[in-house]
Amino acid sequence: MRAAVCHAYGPPETIRVSSVPSPPVSAGQVRVRVGAAAVNFPDVLLMANAYQVTVPVPFVPGSEFAGVVAEVGVGVSGLAVGDRVMGTAIAGAFAEEIVVPATSVTIIPGGVTDASAAAFGVAHRTAYHVLRSVARLRRGERLVVLGAGGGVGLAAVQLGALLGATVTAVASTDAKLAAAASCGAASLINHTRVDLRQELRAAFPDGVDVVVDPVGGDLAEPALRALRWGGRFVTVGYASGTVPRIPLNLVLLKGCQILGFQFRDFAAHAPRELARNEAALLDLLATGQALPRVGATFKLAEAAAALRHVADGKAIGKVVLAIG
Ligand SMILES: NC(=O)c1ccc[n+]([C@@H]2O[C@H](COP(=O)([O-])OP(=O)(O)OC[C@H]3O[C@@H](n4cnc5c(N)ncnc54)[C@H](OP(=O)(O)O)[C@@H]3O)[C@@H](O)[C@H]2O)c1
């Protein structure tokens, strides 16, 4: 099969598309013929060996995929050859085939394309768990989303609006803000043109209820300062490359909460809440209310360009590799 392979840790350009053997299917696993895979920021970090986990080289990056079941291992029930499925893995999706545990795939709801299904797995699930279970967002609350044009940010805008919040999107370009507006943001702030702290204070003199931050860096503190007394700030990631340091007196003065979310820990510690959220989110996908926005599509042979697009923060919504 053809696959994009990381032979040595490094920047996106080190990836090479070549022919590799298809992995064997063991008991409890399925082989999926990949139709589409989504490209995520952690793929860039894994390739650079700068992620929380290390995958030994050589490996095939890619953590989100959608396609058709091509082989079913011994002991698998509820899945058959020909089923359309979507799923996530640490790596392996930038290939014509991926082998994963059967428990890590879900049947794609009818009418949802491979591109949408592949783009759904990480960003929408992260944003939904963050909003519902960490921020505990309520209808009518004021939500500020940083990195609002990116994968997690745009999903948080869309899902925050669906959950009944008034959403303010913060991003670096007008194109990203236009995407956020089309996903339901009520107000837009281009942080490269205005002072974020002053802008938020002018727009919300009584403060905002919730901030979702997948970016970190210089934007975190001014956004936290915009919270009302008792507000919630959720740190989700550091796409800026800088983990912010927040003066603790701000927490004291605001009586606010700084909360964190990490997918694998949430899955391990809150399995029931995870299952409830995933069922509700799948329903939102099936009914077309929570479709991911795919901002750019590349071929498998263009995997390096797709990774570079994400690494440079140019992605609007999700970036997809069309493989099948
Ligand atoms: N905690 C979890 O479980 C979890 C789950 C999924 C993702 N994450 C993390 O969340 C972060 C965002 O993921 P994502 O998929 O939304 O990424 P993304 O689509 O690439 O968006 C990231 C946004 O960060 C901003 N940014 C600022 N400086 C940047 C830089 N130097 N390089 C790239 N982007 C920069 C950009 O927004 P502007 O241009 O508007 O400033 C960009 O749109 C990543 O760090 C990822 O690892 C965490």
Number of helices: 11
First and last CA, distance: 11 Å
Shape: globular
* Attached small molecules: NADP nicotinamide-adenine-dinucleotide phosphate
Helix content bin: 25-40%
Low-confidence blocks of residues: none
Cα radius of gyration in angstroms: 20 Å
Structural class: alpha/beta
Number of E-state strands: 15
> What is the mean pLDDT?
97
Fraction in beta strands: 25-35%
| H/E element sequence | EEEHEEEEHHEHEHEHEHEHEHHEHE
Major beta sheet summary: 7 strands, mixed
Short description:
The protein is 30% helix and 26% strand. The protein contains eleven helices and 15 strands.
Describe the 3D structure.
This protein has 324 residues and is α/β, with parallel strands linked by helices. The protein is 30% helix and 26% strand. It is built from 11 helices and 15 strands. The chain has helices at residues 41-47, 114-118, 123-134, 151-162, 174-182, 196-203, 220-225, 248-254, 263-269, 271-286, 303-311; strands at 2-5, 16-19, 29-39, 64-72, 84-88, 97-101, 105-107, 142-145, 166-171, 187-190, 208-213, 227-235, 257-260, 294-299, 318-322. The strands form 3 sheets. Strands 3, 4, 5, 6, 7, 14 and 15 form a 7-stranded mixed sheet that branches. A 6-stranded parallel sheet has the order 10-9-8-11-12-13, sandwiched between helices. Strand 12, helix 8 and strand 13 (257-260) form a beta-alpha-beta unit. Helix 3 packs across helix 4 and helix 3 crosses helix 10. The longest helix is centred in the C-terminal third of the chain and has 16 residues, at 271-286. It starts with a strand and ends with a strand. The model has no long low-confidence stretch (mean pLDDT 97). It binds NADP nicotinamide-adenine-dinucleotide phosphate.
